[in-house]
Amino acid sequence: IMSRTAKTETANNLKIFEDVIRRIVEIAAADVDGVRGFVTSKVDFAGLFIRAGQQSLIDVKTGDGSAEISLGINVSGKCKVKSTAEKVQQRVKDDVQSMTGIAVTKVSVYIYGIVFDDEDNENGKNNE
């Protein structure tokens, strides 16, 4: 049984589910150079409770036609962490707003790990 809540509604009854916004966030963030995956821990952001069924640390809170988004990512050891996090914030905000029409008021990016591997060179990516 899947429980989904439609949190956003416009005048013409368009409903956008939080799962859809999470997927947009995932695609947008993954497209930023330096991002090496999402954290899949079941611990919530406060670190106090275990949230059953949580598959990744992408949290979307919507209300009054706006959204607040939090996500946990791992980054490449060859990138500038601050710059990569800022690019993720901007990309997520831009993509969610343009695809859904929902104003994004806050994007929190949590860096949970740095991945050092040889895949960066093999994939031909040149991270800053």
Structure commentary:
- The protein is α+β, with helices and mostly antiparallel strands and 128 residues long.
- The chain has 3 helices and 6 strands; from the N terminus they run ββαβββαβα.
- The chain is elongated.
- The chain starts with 5 loop residues before the first strand and ends in a 6-residue tail after the last helix.
What are the SSEs and their pairings?
Elements lengths: L5 E4 L5 E3 H13 L4 E4 L19 E6 L2 E11 L4 H20 L2 E13 L3 H4 L6
Helix pairs in contact: 1-2
Structural class estimated from helices and strands: alpha+beta
State the helix count. 3
| Mean pLDDT over the full residue set | 80
State which percent range the strand residues make up: 25-35%
Q: How many β strands by DSSP?
A: 6
Shape: elongated
Largest sheet: 4 strands, mixed
Contiguous low-pLDDT stretches (5 residues minimum) are 47-54, 124-128
N-to-C CA distance: 44 Å
Roughly how many Å is the radius of gyration?
Answer: 16 Å
Approximate helicity band: 25-40%
Which H/E pattern describes the elements?
EEHEEEHEH
List its salient traits.
alpha+beta, 128 residues, elongated, disordered C terminus, 32% strand, two-stranded antiparallel sheet
Short summary of the structure?
The chain is built from 3 helices and 6 strands, in the order E-E-H-E-E-E-H-E-H. It is an alpha+beta fold.
